[in-house]
Amino acid sequence: MDFGVVMFPTDYAIRPDQLARALEERGFESVWFPEHTHIPASRRSPWPGGANLPKEYWSAYDPFVALTAAAMATSRLRLGTGICLVVERDPIITAKEVATLDRLSGGRFLFGIGGGWNAEEMENHGTEFKKRWRVLRERVLAMKEIWTKEEAEFHGEFVRFDKIWSHPKPAQKPHPPIIMGGDGPTTFDRVIEFADGWMPIARPKQNPAEKIPALRQRAEKAGRDPKSVAVTIFFAKPDRATVDALRAAGVDRAIFGVPSESRDTVLPLLDSYAPLLR
Length: 278
Fold this sequence. Notes:
Elements: E1 2-6, H1 16-26, E2 30-33, H2 63-72, E3 78-81, E4 84-85, H3 91-104, E5 109-114, H4 119-124, H5 132-148, E6 152-155, E7 160-164, E8 178-181, H6 187-194, E9 197-199, H7 212-221, E10 230-233, H8 240-249, E11 253-257, H9 263-273
Helix pairs in contact: 1-2, 1-9, 2-3, 3-5
């Protein structure tokens, strides 16, 4: 099982390049940066994590720029979006950003994606909340065409373009792993149709790892190799009992969280997590 760390990269936290270098030195497999372009001041959409939304949600760097800084400071560390809000992004531009980062990093990018929870945020980008999953599906399928075809075209309900040329192509073939976030009733539909992995969040009194057998069965029924659908647990509890249980359940990667804080706070946390890697 591999191990990574997720943090909101902000201008008041440890720098993305410094965090990445510290993770690689300690033997972590990956670093993950979330995405929120902004938070509407109305605050109408409730945050799933509680009543008070932490300020890092509206203070985060662009994940692709932050991950590029991390890539330039490391040579082995994998670089993940956790998650990229595809429903807020133009698919042609995002396909270019993914391919560019994958090329510049030597094929180390992991494309974690999700639909998001903030209705007003995505509406400011032109996506209706009730249509977000349909929009996400088409944008991902369109990006896969761009990454794998010399002359890509797509004609859907939400994404439409005639034949285009777009380079570079990703270093990883056919494209970087697409890792689907979420744990709703239709999440596995998306994982099986167009993703390479599943990335639920570990929550109190909820153990998404219990659903791994059902995911494997869905993959096999769809004609996919069940082992080809990797499982990543986000915000895993950083203790030995949890890590051992996740490994026994067949989890491929555990991601620990660190706060958006300075080196003095974050580096000791990494040191405390590092023994769990062994």
